[in-house]
Each structure stands twice: as C-alpha cells, then as structure tokens.
Design a protein that fits this description.
The structure holds two protein chains of two kinds. By secondary structure, chain A is an alpha+beta fold. Chain A has helices at 2-6, 9-13, 46-77, 80-106, 120-130, 133-146, 196-199, 203-210, 216-226; strands spanning 19-22, 25-28, 151-158, 163-170, 182-189. By secondary structure, chain B is mainly α. Chain B has helices at 3-25, 35-43, 51-66, 78-88, 91-104, 167-170, 174-185, 188-218, and strands at 109-116, 136-143, 154-160. In chain B, α5 runs antiparallel to α7. The longest helix of chain B is centred in the C-terminal third of the chain and has 31 residues, at 188-218. The relative contact order of chain B is 0.13. Classes of the chains: A alpha+beta, B mainly alpha. The A-B interface holds A 51, 55-56, 59, 88, 92, 148-151, 170-172, 191-193, 196-197, 200-201 and B 8, 12-13, 16, 53, 106-109, 143-145, 162-164, 167-168, 171-172.
Chain lengths: 228, 243
C-alpha cells in the first residue's frame, strides 16, 4: 500500500496505458485526455469526445480487466476451455484499450499544434514514400472510407524495413496484427461511434476534417524512435 | 426508435446501399439475378466479392424493417411459441439468448433468430436424413453484412447492431436498445409468418430430394445426365452398371 501513497493519479495517467499492479495482477485504467473534451471542435464535437472517452474506451478497459482476471483464474486452474473462450474478448477489449490510448495522443487542439504538418524526418519520409502529404492523406481517407463495418486506418512504420505503411485493421485489431514489425504512428478510428453524432453516415467528411487536429508531433516522435 | 434514426438509417444508410449496388451491377450478369441469388453468388463461399456488402445489407435492412411494427413487442403465440418452448425452454430464455448474441457481436453485425433445416453442401458425401429434431430454431450472430442465408438457414427475425442503428437514440448503450427492441418493436406476427414459409420451403426441398433420389435408383429418365462410375474397362458411358 506504500506504493499507492507515492504515486499520484496524475503520474499514473502518464504511465501510458495506466498500468497498476495490485495483488500481483496487472490492471489497466483509463488514461486521462491531455486536453478538454471540447478542445478539438469543430473537427470533433465535445459530445463525441466525452462519450468516446468516458463510455467506449472505459468499457474496453473495464472488460479487458475482467477478461484478464478470468484468464488468470482459468490459467491457474489449468482450465484450457475457458482460456480459449476468453481469447476473443481479450483481443477485442485489449485491442480497444491499446488503440484508443494511441488515438488520444494522435489528436491535439489547434492551438497546441493540431493539424500542423510534421517537420523533421517523418515529413521527409512521407514525401519520399508517398510523394506528398496530400497523397498520404488521400490514401488514408480512401481506405478509411472504404472500410466495411468497424475498424481503424493506420499510418505505421515497419521497424525492420524502416518503411512507412498505410494499413487498415478491422474491429479493434491492433496494427501489429497485420505485421509483427509494424509500429503505429497515427491511427484514425472509423467505428461509427467515432463520428456518428456529428457526421452521421458521412464518414468521408469526418475523415476530411480530422486532419485539422492530427498531432503530428507525437507521430514524429514515435517515428524518430524507430528510425533514428 | 426515433424518427431521426429512421430518417438516417433508412433514408441514408439503406438508400446508399441500394444506389451503390445498382452502380456496381448495371450492365453485368448480376443485374439479372434475384437479390438472394446475388448474395449467395457474391458471398462466394466466404471469399467475398465487392457487391456482397451492398447486396446483403439491402436484404438485411429490408428484413429488419419488416421485423418491426409500431406497438410491437409482447409475446409470440401458436406454433412459433411451441417451437420456442421446445428449443429454448421458454420465451424468456430465447429473449436472453437473443440479447446475449446481440450484445456480444463485437464490432458491426446482426443477431438473428433462424429456422435451421439445412443440409451441408459436402460434395461427394451422403448426408444423413434429417430428423424432425434436427430442424429447429437457433439464435446466431453475424459480422458486418453477413447473414444466415449464406449458411442456408431461414432467417425469422433480426436486430441490427451496427452502431448507426442505435447511436442517435442510445449512444453507446447497446443493451438498452436491444431491450427496447424486444419490448416495443418486434413483430411476432411476421416472425410466425416467416416460420410457416420456412417450414414449407424445407418440406418442399425434402420432397424434391426424395424425388431426385428415386429417379437415380430407377435408372435414367430422359434428359438426365449420365452418372460417372469407375469401370474396369472403358465401356459405353451411358450404360448403367447392373446392380
């Protein structure tokens, strides 16, 4: 319990995924948003941000923890049947937690640099690989709009080949499910809950506008770490 | 289900599927097919072709609208209720299973009550004869545009659990949407009607198969194809091997 008094809530939030260790079992918690719910307007409404963070992401966290607890119990008992049954819940909720934790960092209010194109090596790499930022944006928007059902569209980097990739994943599958060497730089949630209240069925409009609040600084930092 | 939801769900989403499919199939052979044939053809045994998503979603949404009525809800009756009791125990158990399927469909998709009287398509093997007990009501769920037609089931009832179906009225609270659907919207009359049709279809199919089997045993009727058989020496193919 001494651990608890030393670590404040704020610094827990800064531990990325909000990891806590209690009773030997790791539990996860909802990371704080680094900005107000309304700070991304008009690109994304405050109503959506609040629901998305407080309801959807929280549900993934809660259910991920629940599944992990059940996995722990089943593994201890050698209950393979239950372990196998839990796999889809783990992938879905764990993926949901991972993906959304990245997503909040992929966004920033305009006055904090949201929408500002990347400088530095990522900017170069985009121009080299895609020709220009416009081409990259159009590619991601096209793939994002064409995605059937629920999923994500990603800009990632292959950390072995040092190349940029645009990929989509379905449901809450993390980018790494498309390639073990893929590291996400930027993910755009194209589940309907990410845009419906504001854009209704017009997903292309959501995709067009979200670039105004994309936090390229974060993407650049991740890129520089993988491709120094 | 609010007017606003219907205006978007029917007026935009469903309409867009129709418009997009028409674009896709105009001038092709697919244009001549019935919607159900188009769905099966483009499902392509799981190797989904582009028109599938639009075609199946059109079918699914039509089926969904017809599964509801103003002042719906209540309980089923008659033969439908009998089968429900036989296959689920009681009505409450069916509701529970439907709710569970609808809630646990990760991502987009549909939950269904179906009548199952199908045979597997297994090529050269021989299916055992279906017993009455094998024909039953089942709850299934499917992702995105997939529907039970592709598994050769007869759908009786569906609930759309794509987020666009409930987000305006319920936001993230899918469970509340499902509850309201069961309590206030579902049309058990339509489900009963569909069950009758499904049973009739299944009986008709069985009669067809028996007829065909009898034809094979009796020998060839005019115009039927020759049966390939392994013969020790090359002989005239059309000559049937004596039993």
């Amino acid at each position: 319990m001494a651990l608890r008094t030393l670590v404040t809530r704020k610094s827990l939030g800064n531990l990325g995924l909000g990891l806590r260790q209690l009773r030997g079992l790791q539990t996860y918690s909802l990371p704080d948003l680094p900005y107000d719910y309304g700070a991304l307007e008009p690109a994304i409404s405050g109503e959506i941000m609040q629901l998305h963070h407080q309801k959807h992401h929280q549900a993934y966290v809660t259910n991920y923890n629940k599944a992990l607890e059940q996995l722990d119990a089943a593994t201890a008992k050698g209950d393979s049947h239950t372990v196998a049954k839990l796999l889809s819940a783990l992938k879905f909720n764990g993926g949901g937690h991972i993906n959304h934790s990245i997503f909040w960092k992929n966004l920033a209010p305009v006055k904090e640099g949201g929408g500002e194109p990347p400088h530095g090596s990522l900017g170069w790499a985009i121009d080299n690989h895609f020709g220009s930022m416009e081409v990259l944006v159009q590619k991601m928007n096209t793939e994002g709009a064409a995605l059937q059902g629920s999923g994500w569209v990603w800009l990632g980097v292959d950390k072995e080949l040092k190349t940029l990739v645009v990929q989509t994943t379905e449901n809450q599958d993390p980018l790494v499910s498309k390639g073990a060497n893929l590291v996400p730089l930027l993910g755009i949630d194209v589940w309907e809950h990410a845009y419906y209240l504001q854009y209704k069925n017009v997903r292309p409009d959501y995709l067009k506008n979200i670039w105004k609040v994309i936090n390229w600084k974060f993407a650049g930092e991740v890129y520089e770490k993988e491709c120094p | 289900m609010s007017r606003e939801t219907l205006e978007y769900h029917w007026g935009k989403h469903h309409r867009t599927y129709v418009e997009n499919l028409n674009h896709q199939i105009v001038g092709t052979e697919l244009d001549q097919m019935t919607l159900e044939d188009l769905i099966l053809a483009s499902y392509n045994r799981g190797n989904i072709l582009p028109p599938f998503n639009n075609a199946a979603q059109i079918w699914n949404h039509e089926f969904f609208w017809e599964s509801m009525k103003p002042g719906g809800g209540g309980k089923p009756s008659g033969y439908l209720l009998e089968l429900i009791k036989r296959d689920f125990g009681n009505f409450e158990a069916l509701v529970k299973e439907l709710k569970s399927a609808a809630s646990s469909q990760f991502g987009s998709g549909w939950a269904w009550l179906v009548y199952k009287a199908n045979r597997l398509d297994v090529g050269n093997a021989v299916n055992p004869r279906l017993q009455e007990e094998d024909k039953k009501l089942v709850v299934v769920k499917s992702p995105n545009a997939v529907n039970p037609l592709v598994w050769d089931y007869s759908p009786l009832l569906t609930i759309d659990v794509w987020e666009h179906a409930y987000y305006i009225d319920f936001q993230n609270r899918r469970a509340d949407y499902i509850t309201i659907f069961m309590e206030k919207l579902v049309s058990w009359e339509v489900v009963s009607l569909r069950l009758e049709l499904a049973k009739a279809r299944a009986s008709e199919r069985e009669r067809e198969e028996e007829r065909r089997k009898r034809e094979e045993e009796d020998g060839y009727s005019a115009g039927s194809e020759a049966v390939e058989m392994y013969l020790e020496s090359e002989t005239d193919e059309s000559e049937p091997e004596a039993e």
